[in-house]
Design brief:
The chain has 145 residues and is α+β, with helices and mostly antiparallel strands. It has five helices and six strands. Strands 2-5-4-3-1-6 form a six-stranded mixed β-sheet. Strand 3 and strand 4 form a beta hairpin. The longest helix is centred in the last third of the chain and has 10 residues. The radius of gyration is 14 Å and the shape is globular. The structure holds a DNA duplex (12 and 12 nucleotides).
DNA sequence: GCCAACGTTGGC
DNA sequence: GCCAACGTTGGC
């Protein structure tokens, strides 16, 4: 299983909206960046991703799971763009802010810090564990630790 | 609301 | 195929 991070402006698509979609999940449409798209193409069913609120909130607020492989983006008028579908698994017991991520030397190489403009990013297993720990979440059960 | 970073577009 | 102009993202 691979780990990722998905950014969303809560004004456009928030964690609460994602949760409301339940098991159906929601297509991660609207991405118009090749690197981000390529990351989505590399995603497999069951891969997990942090749900990050950009612009407002600036924090990892929950965990989602890839429930459909990359497929043509219905919001694109162009065949170049496609996207995966994700469903909410669990909220972070405590949101992990960008500030905290930046302040943690273990996360100095994390994409969120290094390539902060990228909206779909890979997350290393060690980084995944560390962010879970900071958020008070058990990475195995996704329950409060 | 500003501005820096950076990806994309398009002319040559 | 290069590179300047431009647009967008996103933190502050």
């Amino acid at each position: 299983m691979q780990y990722w991070l998905l950014k969303s402006e809560p004004d456009a698509w928030s964690w609460d909206q994602q949760v409301a979609k339940g098991e159906t999940g929601e297509m991660w449409s609207g991405v118009r960046n090749y690197t981000a798209r390529n990351h989505m193409r590399a995603m497999k069913l069951g891969d997990r991703a942090f749900f990050y609120h950009s612009n407002e909130g600036l924090a990892v607020v929950g965990v989602v799971e890839v429930c459909a492989l990359s497929a043509p983006d219905p919001t694109a008028d162009d065949v170049r763009w496609d996207c995966v579908t994700v469903k909410a698994l669990a909220p972070m017991p405590r949101p992990v802010t960008l500030k905290e991520v930046k302040a943690n030397p273990k996360l100095a190489e994390m994409s969120l810090v290094v390539s902060f403009r990228l909206s779909v990013q890979p997350v290393l297993p060690a980084e995944w564990k560390e962010v879970c720990r900071m958020g008070g979440m058990d990475p195995k059960t996704l329950k409060a630790a």
